[in-house]
């Protein structure tokens, strides 16, 4: 049963970009949908489980959720620039490498020369995998991994790094994960609402896509909530391995369901790159 629960985050996070891609709309529509849908899951979880959360942890969680929305806006915009099948592998690598470096420098992870060697070799494998997935035929389509698109996604990923580091902050480290889940989701909604209002000068509130994209938010919120229980039952390392399956689902879902074109050469590089990303991600847990 624990392993079935661990598959939920992979499915939810993997299908989220496909759902929002099918629905369409602007980045403002999509990020609002994620915030609203995730907040619905957070409210339901809070009402059913009645967890405790301190005022300090509530505020910290709210802020970190809002910062997460920065990373997600960057990802949605990158979907339009590069396509889901190119964005997700790169975004996963940026998150994994950034979080690992932060862990080593500030959180005391990968202590010892052996752990560092295994960890950085694993990250190298992941980076090579990402480079393979970004290979494009110059003559094919307009959704390419240009330097500008690459740097845009990298910079906006900082929001994800802050969100991922957040559980290890002393203000919330010993809090119940279920307790901080609701303020995290509300923070995402607040960040999304602010972005949507200023980016579209309020126009997005009148657009149907703003509310249709709540379906993607429900998928994301269920995945995030399920991950709490997967990590509790299997340990965070094992649960993390399962979440990496979302790269496979989102990448090939983008190709098959969103009809993102791949030439024969691009498909070979994509398959090889995804395999390396998953292998490298798994290897990091042994560091």
Automatic annotation (TrEMBL):
Organism whose genome encodes this protein: Limosilactobacillus alvi
Keyword Cell wall biogenesis/degradation in annotation: no
Highest taxon of source: Bacteria
Pfam families: Sugar_transport (PF06800)
Origin organism lineage: Bacteria, Bacillati, Bacillota, Bacilli, Lactobacillales
Parts forming coiled coils: none
Membrane topology note: Multi-pass membrane protein
Protein name: Sugar transporter
InterPro entries: EmrE-like (IPR037185), Sugar_transport (IPR010651)
Family indicated by similarity: Belongs to the GRP transporter (TC 2.A.7.5) family.
Keywords, alphabetical: Membrane, Sugar transport, Transmembrane, Transmembrane helix, Transport
Membrane-traversing stretches: 6-24, 31-49, 55-76, 88-110, 116-135, 147-166, 178-198, 210-230, 236-257, 269-286
Compartments, record wording: Cell membrane
């Amino acid at each position: 049963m624990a392993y079935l629960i661990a598959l939920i985050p992979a499915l939810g996070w993997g299908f989220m970009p496909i759902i929002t891609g099918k629905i369409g709309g602007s980045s403002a529509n999509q990020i609002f949908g994620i915030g609203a849908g995730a907040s619905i899951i957070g409210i339901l979880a809070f009402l059913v489980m009645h967890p405790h959360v301190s005022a300090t942890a509530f505020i910290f969680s709210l802020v970190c959720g809002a910062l997460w929305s920065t990373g997600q806006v960057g990802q949605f915009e990158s979907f339009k620039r590069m396509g889901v099948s190119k964005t997700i592998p790169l975004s996963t690598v940026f998150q994994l490498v950034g979080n690992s470096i932060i862990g080593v420098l500030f959180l005391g992870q990968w202590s010892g020369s052996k752990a560092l060697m295994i960890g950085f070799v694993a990250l190298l494998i992941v980076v090579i995998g990402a480079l393979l997935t970004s290979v494009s035929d110059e003559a094919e389509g307009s959704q390419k991994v240009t330097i500008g698109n690459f740097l845009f996604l990298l910079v906006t990923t900082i929001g994800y790094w802050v969100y991922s580091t957040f559980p290890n902050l002393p203000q919330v480290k010993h809090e119940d994960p279920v307790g901080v889940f609701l303020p995290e989701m509300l923070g995402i909604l607040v960040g999304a609402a602010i972005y949507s209002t200023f980016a579209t000068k309020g126009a997005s509130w009148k657009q149907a896509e703003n509310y249709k994209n709540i379906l993607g938010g429900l998928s994301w919120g269920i995945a995030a909530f399920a991950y709490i229980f997967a990590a509790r039952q299997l340990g965070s390392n094992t649960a993390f391995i399962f979440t990496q399956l979302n790269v496979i689902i989102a990448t090939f879902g983008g190709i098959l369901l969103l009809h993102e074109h791949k030439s024969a050469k691009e498909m070979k590089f994509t398959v090889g790159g995804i395999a390396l990303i998953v292998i490298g991600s798994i290897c990091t847990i042994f560091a």
